[in-house]
């Protein structure tokens, strides 16, 4: 972030006029920076420093969200304000950050394993609480970003898109549930007039997911295929960012086979022990997906499991929030596990160790959730991978040991391939994993701040 000029003042200035390529880039950069175990051995200290496979201390994630303070003008996450579904499927524009996150572990009819991601992010950039004054001539203060990623065993396809709020090409609505950016669309197919359409489960499912990646761009130094559409400008004709060459096309039908899960205390999710970093957070881990994925002209029939996360907050656009290690796991016995380690700076002293807050939700096959506290779980990196991102070599922990003795879980979670790195405007790790040890299975892992 540019030093010497408050980010909020810069954003206010940007919102007062139509966006040029430069100002839009700065705005998106700010938004991106804001984003955002038998088990006979006891768990290790959740606040222990990361150590690499040689036993040497490694650095923790460092200021993934940038040196930006949360503003008092945004709505706050409160413990006694419980989630209500299906109404909370929709957007919460008074909060600073929000995302709707779908990941899938798919298998084709020929046995090929795929990892698929579809995410829509929303950012409120109105740091002064005066949306009318801060809006431009054509948009409000909400900004949107879409991410799509597909991993085959040998290739990676990725694209990100950006949109201004209130223009009409990016939004989330509840009836029927729809999450859209441009022609990427996730939409409920429930009957509007039925009682099921208004229920907690069916307000979002069944649904269809349709999106297409375009404009293949090969990176000769890696197997990654980066397909980032050019940022729009005030003067460029729309044809300059029309996607002409469709490389990946996804068409999935989604159904829910279990309940939504509200993490933490009925959806109030602490990211630090004292709760200074926190969010509203729920998931749908019981998604069955069926459909097709067309990759460079070859159509594959696919099926598999999906996981949906919805989270919103005004407490993570903060210099104390340094990144996280997050796991969504489908275990072989039908149970599910969501676990994360949040890295936070105490802000008291440069020499003081950073806090690592660890927690999990263990979910039975019937959808009964149990919160696993920090004393009952250990998540330890056991293997690292060096990933080249631009001119930067990043050391990323891509294999982990997860121990939860009271659940007889002592499992290794490891990337199913190398280089599952999203080289987006703000780079992060997002990819499919395989599970071995006390349990087998598959899932996803997201690592930020590296």
Automatic annotation (TrEMBL):
Q: Which UniProt keywords apply?
A: Hydrolase, Signal
Give the signal sequence positions.
1-38
Q: Which Pfam families match?
A: CrtC (PF07143), Lipocalin_9 (PF17186)
Q: Name one GO molecular function term.
A: hydrolase activity
Listed PROSITE patterns: PROKAR_LIPOPROTEIN
Q: Where is the AttH domain?
A: 98-314
- Highest taxon above the source species: Bacteria
* InterPro entries attached to this UniProt entry: AttH-like_dom_sf, AttH_dom
Official protein name in the record: Hydrolase
Tell me what organism the protein belongs to: Alteromonas mediterranea (strain DSM 17117 / CIP 110805 / LMG 28347 / Deep ecotype)
């Amino acid at each position: 972030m540019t030093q010497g000029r408050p980010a909020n003042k810069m954003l206010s200035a940007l919102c007062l006029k139509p966006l040029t390529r430069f100002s839009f880039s700065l705005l998106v950069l700010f938004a991106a920076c804001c984003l955002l175990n038998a088990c006979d051995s006891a768990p290790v200290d959740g606040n222990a420093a990361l150590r690499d496979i040689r036993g040497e201390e490694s650095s923790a994630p460092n200021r993934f969200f940038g040196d930006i303070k949360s503003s008092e003008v945004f709505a706050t996450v409160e413990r006694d304000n419980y989630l209500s579904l299906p109404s909370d499927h929709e957007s919460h524009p008074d909060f600073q950050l929000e995302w709707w996150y779908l990941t899938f572990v798919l298998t084709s009819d020929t046995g090929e394993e795929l990892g698929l991601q579809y995410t829509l992010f929303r950012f409120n950039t109105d740091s002064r609480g005066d949306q009318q004054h801060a809006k431009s001539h054509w948009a409000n203060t909400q900004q949107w970003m879409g991410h799509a990623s597909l991993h085959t065993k040998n290739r990676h396809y990725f694209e990100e898109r950006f949109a201004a709020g209130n223009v009409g090409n990016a939004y989330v609505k509840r009836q029927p549930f729809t999450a859209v950016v441009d022609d990427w669309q996730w939409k409920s197919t429930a009957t509007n007039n039925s009682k099921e359409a208004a229920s907690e489960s069916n307000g979002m499912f069944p649904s269809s997911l349709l999106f297409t990646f375009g404009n293949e761009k090969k990176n000769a130094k890696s197997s990654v295929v980066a397909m980032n559409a050019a940022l729009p400008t005030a003067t460029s004709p729309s044809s300059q960012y029309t996607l002409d060459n469709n490389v990946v096309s996804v068409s999935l039908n989604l159904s829910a086979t279990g309940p939504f899960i509200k993490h933490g205390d009925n959806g109030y999710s602490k990211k630090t022990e004292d709760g200074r970093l926190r969010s509203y957070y729920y998931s749908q881990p019981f998604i069955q997906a069926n459909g097709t994925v067309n990759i460079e002209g070859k159509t594959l029939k696919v099926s598999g499991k999906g996981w949906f996360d919805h989270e919103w907050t005004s407490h993570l656009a903060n210099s104390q929030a340094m990144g996280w290690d997050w796991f969504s796991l489908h275990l072989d016995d039908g149970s599910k596990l969501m676990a994360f380690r949040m890295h936070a700076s105490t802000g008291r002293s440069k020499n003081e160790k950073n806090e690592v807050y660890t927690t999990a939700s263990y979910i039975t096959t019937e959808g009964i959730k149990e919160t696993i506290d920090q004393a009952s779980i250990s998540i330890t990196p056991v293997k690292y991978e060096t990933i080249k991102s631009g001119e930067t070599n990043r050391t990323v922990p891509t294999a982990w040991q997860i121990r939860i003795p009271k659940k007889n879980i002592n499992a290794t979670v490891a990337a199913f391939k190398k280089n599952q790195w999203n080289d987006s405007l703000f780079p992060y790790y997002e990819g499919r994993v395989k599970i071995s040890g006390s349990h087998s299975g598959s899932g996803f892992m997201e690592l930020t701040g590296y």
